[in-house]
Fold this sequence. Notes:
Layout: E1 28-36, H1 38-41, H2 46-64, E2 70-76, E3 83-89, H3 92-104, E4 111-121, H4 130-139, H5 147-168, E5 177-185, H6 199-214, E6 220-226, E7 235-241, H7 244-256, H8 258-263, E8 264-266, E9 270-274, H9 277-285
Antiparallel strand pairs: 1-3, 1-4, 2-3, 2-9, 4-6, 5-7, 5-8, 5-9, 6-7
The protein binds ligand 76R.
Residues 124-126, 167, 183, 185, 206, 209-210, 213-214, 216-217, 220, 222, 224, 235, 237, 239, 250-251, 254-255, 260, 264 line the site of ligand 76R.
Amino acid sequence: MNKETQLPSTDTEEDKDDGSLRPKEGWHVLHLFYHVEQSQWDILDHQGKIAAETGLTELIQEIRSHPDTQLLAFSMLTPKADIGFMLLTPDLQDANEFEKRLSRSLGADVLAPTYSYLSMTEQSEYATSEDEYGAGLEKRDIKKGTAEYDEEIVKFHQHIAKYTQDRLYPNMPDWPVYCFYPMSKRRGQDGQNWYASSFEERKALMKGHAAIGRTWTGKIRQLITGSVGLDDMEWGVTLFANDTHDVKGIVYQMRFDEVSSQYAEFGDFYIGIQLPLDQLFRRVLG
Ligand code: 76R
């Protein structure tokens, strides 16, 4: 890896002995969805409900103040779930602890898990290489060996380093419309096996996918997290928008792109609204 693209590694000597499970790179990402069991919640009297809400608020604040950790909270649409959380944190021990405490936070059996997904942030396998970028420069008549070429290559590495950093250590937006679904790439017969295609074929297809994706800049923020070996499908797709129409629009448009039309398998879709905690509690707890 080129010097400029090197990322800070969390894999240090001190980490080894304290029981922490920090990955070599990237963060753990947990999507958690619950039903509110209204009959259990209504057993609590007014004081008990206030105490439970305060406890959950304090827990959320504690998790949010943990280093390198983000916790988003959603009011979910449809009876698929009532409340949703998205947690990003480096250490699997913390992810596990926070998850258990969130589940128990409103008292016994009030939050009943309905769906969950474990994945990790990851680098793109298909990022532009220096050679490819250099070939593009030559086409623009910026010749190898010139000062201009070298300057462009330095800028390119700075760009890739920032891009990689943003994928591994992303900042989640506060945009209200939230969409989550898991997906896999097909491993079927008759050429429809993503994993039997060459790297060059996959890279060319992903170029088309990314080109469509970029036309949604400003309307959609996406985070693709890897879950091979971690959960039932291969990636978690998290989308944020300010308008539901754009969620429907991007997913529809991508269905026509070869990567999705030929290779994508989808899990269930979850839609939520990102809300401040007081509004969230009023809506989901009544
Ligand atoms: O990394 C980047 O942001 C740029 C290139 C890029 C990669 C490598 C990219 C861009 N994606 C990449 C990888 Mn994507 N993406 C999806 C879905 O519903 C569907 O049909 C598919 C679900 C959406 C909506 C989406 C949006 N992407 C991936 C991968 C991993 C594949 C692999 O490694 O084999 C998956 C599963 C996936 C799926 N993608 C973008 C977007 C958008 C909006 C972009 C442009 C982002 C930007 O440049 O701002």
